## 1
Amino acid sequence: MMQAGAIRESYDVAVIGAGPAGLAAATACARSGLATALFDEQPGPGGQIYRAVGESPVKPGAILGADYWRGARLVEACAASVAQYVPGATVWSLARELEFGVSIGGTARMVKARRVILATGAIERPFPVPGWTLPGVMTAGAAQILLKTAALVPGGRTVLAGTGPLLWLLARQYLDAGAALAVVLDTTPRANWHRALAHAPAFLASPYLGTGLALLRAVRARVRVIGGVSELAAEGGKRLETVRFRSARSGEQRIAADLLLLHQGVVPNVNLAMAAGVEHRWDDVQLCFAPVRDADFSTSIDGIAIAGDGGGIVGAEASAEQGRIAAFAAIRALKPQASAPLAGAEAEARRALARRRRGRRFLDLLYRPPPQFRRPEGATIVCRCEEVTAREIGAAVAEGCTGPNQLKAFTRCGMGPCQGRLCGLTVTELIAAARGVAPGAVGYYRLRPPVKPVTLAELAGLPQSEAATRAVVRE
Amino acid sequence: MFRRLPEAAPTIAIIVDGKPVPARRGESVAAALIAAGVSQFRATPAAAAPRGPFCMMGVCFDCLVVADGVGNRQACMVPVREGMAIETQRHARKLGQ
Amino acid sequence: MAEEHDIAIVGGGLVGAALAWGLAGAGRRVAMLDEGDAALRAARGNFALVWVQGKGLGLPEYAAWTVRSAEAWPAFAAELAAETSIDLRYSRPGGFHLALSDSELERRAAWLQRLHNQAPPYEVRILGRAETKRMLPEIGSDVAGASFCPLDGHADALRLFRALHAGFQKRGGRYLADHAVDGIENRGGEFRLAAKRGEIRAAAIVLAAGLGNARLAPMVGLAAPVRPQRGHILVTERLAPFLHHPIATLRQTGEGSVMIGDSQEEAGFDTGVATGVVAAMAARAVRAFPRLGRANVVRSWAALRVMTRDGFPIYEQSTACPGAFLVTCHSGVTLAAVHATALAPQIAAGALAPGIGAFTARRFDVPAAA
């Protein structure tokens, strides 16, 4: 039953994130009789990809596409289960002992679980170009959220720029909604096509092919697309006024715009997992840090599993399958008598996952963002929160700074509230390139709780052991 | 910058910097402000650079506004409510705000 | 490949960097060796206070040394600023140690009385609630009073750190990151430091490696009996300025964010954040300044202080290996001025001043009175 009733002090399984992975995981755990809670910071379920799927003002059947409405089935299944769904809940800490801090309606509390399944999904890859902090510049994901939650479409001169399936999906959704787009600037490097070609057969046999090609065709037929865009900048005083770009075919151009939507793929949202101490490694294909996981999606910390895009980008359907598999592992561990009947379902989930993996490599290579958009130069802002530029980072490395944590001390880069979500990958890659080492050797920010801001009053209300109090009040 | 699709007409009103702004139940304060043509929500403390919503999912912390007297609230994470008072932030949050 | 230097400093934190800057200014060829990005770094736990009150009970030399540093700080900050264009944002408006109950205030007063009997070279006043409120209008009703010292101040520790590093390199110093030292040999009048990235040679060395000194000191005939003492720090979002004086456990930075310290825990080498401690710190901060309750904590971390048995520094030079010096303390910001301007010249001259003798580790060998 979907309800935000009283939160218990402990659960068998706590699932964090109500996107496809979390919904599927919570449903499976609850069905097997485990006391299950599903926490999510948004007011409704679906994560980002199925954002507002239960309540979107956008009329069903049109505009958003069939894939989106599939999410409604996942939500319904979860609602029909006995998982306790807790919306508006921000989980800001997670300890190895599987105790986590969650803030709901301005009150923080600590909750324990015997198993935790993190399904925190993905965030947009940073796309640092000159002027990207100007009002009027947003991500394609942001634009999709405005469409799904508020039925807003662009009203002025709108430029879409970047690479990746979401860009094309958004373009098609806008065109179907009757919104005019000035141009789509495609930054996909030509060389990517060559690299991806080797994996084309798998892609051709995959579920992605049909949707992908139809999408591209539909967009190209109705809006101007400029390919081979190698440079991009947003210009303006107090807000966006023009977009400057360079393409192979037409050299440097400027176009007047009041909305620039950027997108160059999504990356795992690692903050909670890293703050918990889960081991991560650099993935050189997806150009991001991803948790080290086994076949059940368990991590380096006993009792914590990561399912879905938070473990590496796999897409919505594969995320749901991972959620199920992680759930089956939790059931095996906590209620083995309930797990035998699930063997068939688990085998099916793994088969479905394998099918979804086919063709993924092709997409990863095709849409791999080019280096100049991952490693900006000069006055381009890298850390939006603290307004630290690429040049300042270069100077700090020249002064001997070897990694992102020292960089924080030298420049404040990464010290803002976003906790590196918008600069971390850029910083790692910039330092790696400057030092001539692999990003994996450079590492990432050392993250700690709270991974989202919590007020002092909320923290003050949490339980304190005598030892903890004595550590602070020493007189 | 953005306009509302006809099937999603505003249903309530919120107050933004003292003026009434149409909004629709179920959307975030950020969405309502964007629909009303507000692009700058705050200025950065260091360089006083203008900032507005960027990610719409609670990750970028650029859409900070004062909502019902409480400062530094992420507008994209605050649902609209009839009559709620929103102020764009030109300065650092005050103690106790 | 061996590199030759006059002095090699092992440790690139606040202690190492202050000494390195001072030594480079004395015209020496200095190398500062530092670990990689994931090191313990006690400097991360600093609270940026330039603090005097309460220091030195049991060791009058420490009280004097602290005051000397506080009084040297303005010129030290000015020199660094002139050299690097980095403003350290140092100010000395006087600092408070708040008491959140009458009994806390009594205990503080009694403790300060003991210190007073030692005749420290600084004045600390006990203030009642009314006077504290006049100076700190935002305090809550739980605040019974405070102790106040006009010599207390604070700076921006990150800027200090950055300025020392920048100044050091400007003065020709060599900063060698990723050079954790595995072993030290003293042979033929010089020191050979073995690091993974290569060997560094120097005529003299300073061990300023914090907790790492415990392992390194015996290599040069010294002892560094230090242990980790964990402290948590919370940092809030930026707020409009409201607090112009540093409090021992709470201060507002130049950016506007509020830093909250300071727990003391024996947790070994665990730098994980403990929610219970964070809660206790938050509770105390909100009792001290109730309107802070609404402020968001955006960051927290725990770091390990480098703690000796009595909490005072160790400054010592080796007799077995002449030219080897040991420097360790847990007040790297407060003492940065004397480290750079008083201790560094002594090291450059090859011998610590007689007055520094009170700080050798030999003081721990004195058997406890029966």
Note: Chain B touches chain C through twelve residues (CB under 8 Å).
## 2
Amino acid sequence: MSETPNAIEAVSAPIPSPGEQYFPKFKVTPALVKEAQALVAQYPEGKEQSAVLPIIHMIQEKFGYICPESMPWIAEMCKSTPIHVAGIVTFYPGIHRKCPGKFHFRVCRTIACAMGGGEELLAHICKKIGVDPASLTDEEPMGISEDGMFSIEAVECLANCGFGPNVMVNDALHQEMTPAKADKLITFLKKNTINA
Amino acid sequence: MLPKDAAAAEGKVNVQINGKWYRFPKGTRIADACNSVGAHVPCFCYHPKLSVAGSCRMCLVEQGMPPRLAPGATPQYNEDGYQTISWMPRAVIACANTVAENMGIRTDSKLTSEARRGVLEFLLSNHPLDCPICDQAGECKLQEYTADYGRGTHRFTESKTKKGKNLSIGPRVNLDQERCVLCRRCVRFMKEIVGEEVLGVVGRGTHNAIACYPGTELDSNYSMNVVDICPVGAMTSKDFRFKMRVWFLKSTPTIDVTNGTGTNINIWTREQQVYRITPRQNDEVNSCWMPDDARLAYKYINAPARLTTPLVRTDAGADQRPSTWDATIGLVTEQLHKCAPTEVAMIASARMTNEELYMVRALAKQLGITKLDIVPRTGEADDLLVSADRNPNSTGAKLILGKEGKGLRTIRNGVRNGSIRFLIALGEDLTSEEAGFTAEDLAGLDYLLCVSHSENATTKAADVVLPGVTFAEKYGTMINVAGRIQRLNKAIEPMGEARSDWDIYRSISQSLGCDCVNVIACPSPMAVLEQMALEFEPMHGLTWGNIGNEGKAIIETGVTIPLIEREKAKK
């Protein structure tokens, strides 16, 4: 592979992230295979490919992101092809190709939250965790702090429009967020290693 | 009786296209219906042999149906027996929708062209517009439709999305992601026809791009078909790219000769040079596809190894030297007269056309020889289009010569034990693996006469070499493994002084004293065909004209072409 991967090589090029230290490295174990097989078994014979998305979710939950090594394995598990899996992984913004931080912020910027200050909140949290808001682009939607503790990305609707602006940290939803509440939350998270 | 009832009786429906009423079988796609009556529908993603994607939106047409009736109302028919069509305010795609009774379609209305104009503007918004250096220019759908529906100026002031360019995605195919219109024909072809899902779409929105997974390649023997079906210049052939602008090329419909399937092809030439081969649709032989190895089997036609003059060796051990046709035919006649017929063997080829085989038979008869056979050639069938029989005309050889290659071993033994002193090799390299002769076998002969289009070990060992032609330089017919007779057409003139093989055999027979008018007076391969039509029962009634470009099934061989069988089963 050349120094800068070309458009084809980029499909499976690793994207290094300091967040990797907080997640186990992807490894195929008999237990993992069994778990994947259980997901595949949910679908009728000949439709094994339908399990691609559930397995992707399972991998992302366990390992934080979909690393290049896992894509051919996922394909093998559900009788699909690596390019099909790569197509799905690169399509959904919710599927990460880069490892997020220990605490991953999803800041909603759909209309209700945006009107309630979502955009400002995004910039504020970015600054707080040391991420340049301008670095969040279509190609690279996720920013991560240098120590790998925090990562942030803008998302569309978190389905709590009445109580915006909404921020989701890992799996916990925080409503009616303000910069001050965000500061408090980040300070709390820094002190506590438990999940928010 | 109303038109709807008359149509229903035939299993058809009445459809109005651009104001005129037509009848189509139920289930016909609107795009196919329109194209069949000359109302051309522009398509990128729709391909009749692939599943419908409906993604390019280029085929939008205005569509209308009779209004839905109020409860209790009865339909009103006009004097022609049709209901009034009420036109829908939005256009529908012609590829994914089928015709219905009393449907109206407009392919030339304002709504239709406005809709297509809009679609095309979006397709061009990120297109690099690099037509001057694009190989597809001249046969590019995007270029054609831009001429029809393009705006001429860009309204987009944003910068275009950058994607991968000049990417090698396989040994024979290059990809330019920026030129791509994301029709996914290549993805569907590889998945549905070849069954190797190596191509896919990655990314989202304007970043969408065709890719293969790193470490895998588009290396199937059918990979170059994606170049043909790509409506734009995204997929280009490594072999053909930058070689020649397509509008300078002349295409000649003919057939492939690398194996028994007889894939229908077009040979693209300019000034006696072959530049590329592309498949030609024939739903009974090769659908729209062809294997890569057959597509690239044209390099020998314009290679330096081609023989351009007759060559003779006057003294044993001396070099061959060029000669003229008259002198060489005279010499060959003299030499053949001296040979005892029992000591002569002739090896013909199932790569010959029927017309050539007929003349070979006449020559063998004139010489009075019985030791005659062809070289059988087999390989592995690929369950798609490549037949296990690697000779293109084994069926013809069996019909005309009655030979299948079973006597080759006897001839080989005869040469080795000295009972055969004289050998005539027609269109075959005897040192090839399939023929099985060694250089020593050939050196031990008293006399070796050879007809060949290119130099090889046999021509080098021969006493007399007569230059023949390749399949691109001749007219003729061949019968494929399934028993279908098909035509070869001449795309270029014979190289140098080379002559059509059938004419070489005819000349020798004549010079040897053949007095059969049907042989010596034949003016053309078409006349030979007519002669054969009288002689061989399966060929009865055949003429050059009625075989046509599609060929004609004449013999029941019991052999089928797997890809075609699958296609038929799908319907």
Note: The mean pLDDT of chain B is 94.
